Amino acid sequence: MFDERREQHEDAELLVALVGTGALQFVPEQYHRDPLRCFLWIAQTRPELLARGDWKRGACAARRRAWCTHWNPEDLVRSGFRQRAARCQAPKAALELLAPLAREVLGAPVRGLHREEAQLPRWALRDTTVVRYKPEESQVPHIDTSDVTMLLYLSDAGGRTCFPHLGCSVQPRRGRVLVFCSTQPRAARFGGFAGSAYGEPLDSTMHYGSLMEEPHGEKMILQLLFAAEDQCLPFRSWAEALQGDALRQAARTYGCQAGRPGRGVGLCLAKERCASGCKELRTGKPCRRVKKAALAFVANCSRILPST
Q1: CA within 13 Å, CB half, 264
Q2: Of 51, 69, 87, which closes a domain?
Q3: Where residue 265 falls among pLDDT bands split at 50, 70, 90?
Q4: Residues 31 and 167 in one domain
Q5: Cβ(5)–Cβ(193) below 8 Å
Q6: What's the pTM?
Q7: 5 pLDDT above the threshold of 80
Q8: Does one domain contain both 88 and 60?
Q9: pLDDT of the residue at 289
Q10: pLDDT digits over 61-80, tens only?
Q11: 147/40 same-domain check
Q12: Could you give the number of structural domains in the chain?
């Protein structure tokens, strides 16, 4: 969903640039259906027609598309992908309940989350999505376009969240929170469609949602994507910047998957994985209210957004 919306935005900007300079008339007709290919053709054959800002815009679009399409096709077969899951924007009621949890994980205010607007933000909320998997539905391998991803599992059923490059997976459990970093802190920043850019892609965090293991029921997750706003922080990984009490006070275990959920907070940290590892938390009472809000929203949702 998020990548498709950003691609449409970038395509529109590239077309405006090409039409404004008159460059589009020189592009062969077979490329006209893809604004990025039109831009690349002009860049190779008539570079004098492009302004400095156009070069930067085209480079960002090319990097984004390359990032989103570079995974190994074998991973698609391994994921058992057959049909994509339904996605829709997360309800505001759920986000209001999740604001304290996000602060407990990140340890800093988040621009775009309820109750945090009046404070100086260090993180920006890039995307909020509810994903519902039914039998025969899964998610293709991908890397999130964000610095930090937080997944809140709203059900016990469903396939695992698998990280094939890391050899680990996480089983859905209602109230479980999976936190991982998809980029490394670098001076270069990418994207910016949602008003915030993200760091250098971390290939090891490529992941997918596998097929449901149960013949009936559904898997539901609520996804929050965060981008760091302070690009000058001296961190080797964004995991070092996560200073929330929920992480600092968590017990640590090592292994391929997290243990069973409980009332306390647990943490699954894989050695030499994801720069500093994929972290798994377990939440208590707030999950029931969050799930109720999300279920009510999905039941009344008339516009299902496409998958990434």
Answers
A1: 7
A2: 69
A3: very low
A4: no
A5: yes
A6: 0.60
A7: no
A8: no
A9: 58
A10: 776 665 554 444 444 444 44
A11: no
A12: 2
Per cent of the chain over pLDDT 70 is 58
Max mean pLDDT among 109-123, 152-166, 193-207 falls in: 152-166
pLDDT-derived band at 249 (thresholds 50, 70, 90) equals low
Domain match, 169 and 234 both = yes
Same structural domain for residues 153 and 256? yes
Q: 308 in a domain, yes or no?
A: no
In a domain, 37, yes or no: yes
Crossing angle (nearest 10°) for helices 52-69 and 2-20: 150
Cβ–Cβ under 8 Å, residues 217 and 207: no
pLDDT in tens, 225-245: 888 876 666 777 787 777 777
Average pLDDT for 179-202: 74
Asked whether residue 307 is domain-assigned, the answer is no
Q: Do residues 83 and 39 share a domain?
A: no
150 inside domain:
yes
Expressed as residue numbers, the domain containing 284 is 74-300
pLDDT, mean of residues 247-257: 48
Mark which of 17, 42, 69 sits at the end of a domain. Answer: 69
Give residue-wise pLDDT tens across range 269-281: 333 333 334 555 5
Cα–Cα distances in angstroms (integers) from residue 226 to residues 19, 96, 197, 294, in the given order: 34, 16, 10, 20
CATH of the domain at 177: 2.60.120.10
